[in-house]
Write a structure and sequence with these properties.
With about 375 residues, the chain is of the alpha+beta class. The chain contains 15 helices and five strands. Strand 1 and strand 2 form a beta hairpin. The longest helix is centred in the middle third of the chain and has 23 residues. The N and C termini lie far apart (about 60 Å). About 5% of the residues have low confidence.
Length: about 375
């Protein structure tokens, strides 16, 4: 087996967020890496993440004498100036990054932060809370964290294998869908669930510590009941609230466990929110799947895409609850008869600040019924 290099081991430790061990290892072998760009970049990045900006700056300066233009290096140097509140110099580095990598998300995010919230007091608070790390050079996903996420995937694979090997066993077993330990809130997060610094931010929902943790618990209960629409609502509430940054991060990971409803599941156990509910607070229901009936108008197609307006509730041609644009952007393009009622399965979306639906599937019977077989 090939022996791993010191840099490989250090990078692995950094990925696992064991920065101190990585720094100790690299510093102990410094004499072997004279004029090695990757060595100074790796050591500087580890120092930056532990808050040793002085050593990080010296490492980055040394790396720059070896290689002038490297996005990771420029992000590291920009982050140091940003930590100090020297936004002018930080911006110069971010502009250099954009020149060579116009789609760099970290640089664009940092520039927007400087534009909207870049006063010295806010920067200091972000440094103290650790939120400033989102502007640091990326260090990859923690493999321990990934292993936790793979547990439900492996479990699902075993279930599928069971279906194939035991096709005649249809008895449904009860139990949790997945291990949510990786996204469970810690005791500290439950006690301090709110973001401490509310200045310069606008939140749709202002919640107490108790309300945030209750909302998160409701999402877990809904998930285990296979009601992923209800779980999405609670996670959307947290995402648009004053919940702490770490809780919002876990909410985003939690979202990855959720599945979109189908015509079948939305009748069995998924919440099917009404037009009235969704239109009253669109961000709360974003990405939820709904099954709405009505008739269509203004149908138009362009290549593989198709769009129309759904007249919600107008299947009997007596009352229109609302008119919502629906977009189908993947094959096959649906064939909808505008003269007959229709039931559309779609995901709630926002387009130009207004309610829209991203179409998933269509049901339209030959006799004009919009009810699916139950």
């Amino acid at each position: 087996m090939r022996r791993r290099s010191v840099l490989d081991v250090a990078c692995s430790l950094i990925n696992q967020r064991q920065f101190a061990k990585a720094i100790t290892l690299l510093e102990s072998r410094g004499e072997n890496f004279e004029d090695n760009f990757d060595y100074y970049l790796t050591l500087g990045t580890a120092c930056l993440y532990v808050g040793d900006a002085g050593t990080a700056s010296r490492c980055f300066q040394k790396a720059r004498t070896i290689k002038l233009t490297d996005t990771r290096l420029l992000l590291g140097q920009a982050a140091i100036y940003l930590r100090r509140g020297d936004t002018d110099r930080a911006l110069r580095y971010y502009l250099d990054i954009i020149d060579s990598d116009p789609r760099n998300k970290i640089a664009r995010h940092a520039m927007e932060f400087i534009r909207s919230k870049g006063d010295y007091e806010t920067i200091c608070r972000w440094v103290d809370s650790g939120r400033i790390e989102q502007f640091y050079p990326e260090i990859g996903v923690n493999p321990i964290f990934v292993a936790g996420l793979l547990v439900p995937v492996v479990a699902a694979a075993l279930v599928i294998a069971g279906i194939f090997f035991f096709p005649f066993s249809h008895e449904k077993t009860s139990g949790p869908r997945a291990n949510l330990n990786m996204v469970a809130l810690s005791d500290a997060e439950k006690k301090n669930a709110q973001e401490r610094d509310l200045s310069g931010s606008v939140y749709r929902y202002i919640l107490t510590d108790k309300q945030i943790t209750e909302s998160y618990d409701k999402a877990i209960v809904a998930f285990q009941a296979e009601n992923d629409n209800a779980a999405k609502v609670e996670l959307n509430r947290i995402a648009n609230s004053n919940a702490a940054f770490s809780i919002k991060q876990k909410s985003q990971v939690f979202m990855g466990y959720l599945k979109d409803a189908t015509f079948d599941t939305i009748q069995k156990n998924q919440e099917n929110y009404t037009y009235e509910e969704v239109s009253s607070d669109i961000p709360l229901y974003l990405d939820c799947v709904v099954s709405w009936t009505g008739r269509i108008s203004n149908a138009r197609s362009a290549g593989e895409s198709y769009a129309c307006d759904l007249l919600v509730g107008y299947e009997t041609m007596k009352r229109v609850e609302g008119i919502v644009p629906v977009f189908f952007e993947k094959e096959p393009v649906p064939a909808i008869d505008g003269e007959k009622p229709v039931r559309i399965l779609a995901k709630v979306a926002l387009r130009e600040g207004k309610l829209a639906l991203n179409g998933i599937s269509v049901f339209q019977s030959v006799n004009g019924s919009v009810e699916l077989r139950r």
